[in-house]
Prior knowledge:
CATH superfamily: HUPs
Radius of gyration: 18 Å
Order of helices and strands: EHEEEHEHEHHE
Number of domains: 1
Mean pLDDT: 83
Distance between the termini: 52 Å
Largest sheet: 5 strands, parallel
CATH architecture: 3-Layer(aba) Sandwich
Amino acid sequence: MAECEAKERKILVGVDEGEASMYALSWCLNNILVSQNSKDTLVLCYAKPPRPVSTAIDGAGRRELRGYMCSPNIIATMDKYANELVEFVMEKAKRLLKEFHNLDVRVEKIVESGDPKDVICHAAEKLDVDMVVLGSHGYGLMKRAFVGSVSNHCAQKAKCPVLIVKMPKSTCPSK
Length: 175
């Protein structure tokens, strides 16, 4: 029998500070990206929350009216913290990837500012990914109504299949 050439796949995994996203990444590595000689690309996508504050005047000399006004020092501190958070999340993902050293996949990282719902859907479309994998925080109905569900939004709006990985009850973090 002739061997079939494996199709290159591009799989986007949404990552954040939570255990649910790292569990989804681990699940993806165990169950989707299992081939040792695959041509797959794993895209780690992180959405930096937009700053809720701004300086009085933006770089173009226009007054910004969104959020609160703060001094440039506070803005710089917030930006530094946001960048450290990105490094923390990507380092956590990198450590997890090292556990799967037998996998031969390319890894790309996407970091964009904005609402995770929009960042993930936009990145999935822009990169023409074959699948999006997301962790589920397991919020109840009330919390989901107030906070919103990134995974539900992406499942409805993304133009590719979306796989939502739920953590087993025994490993779910307390809410």
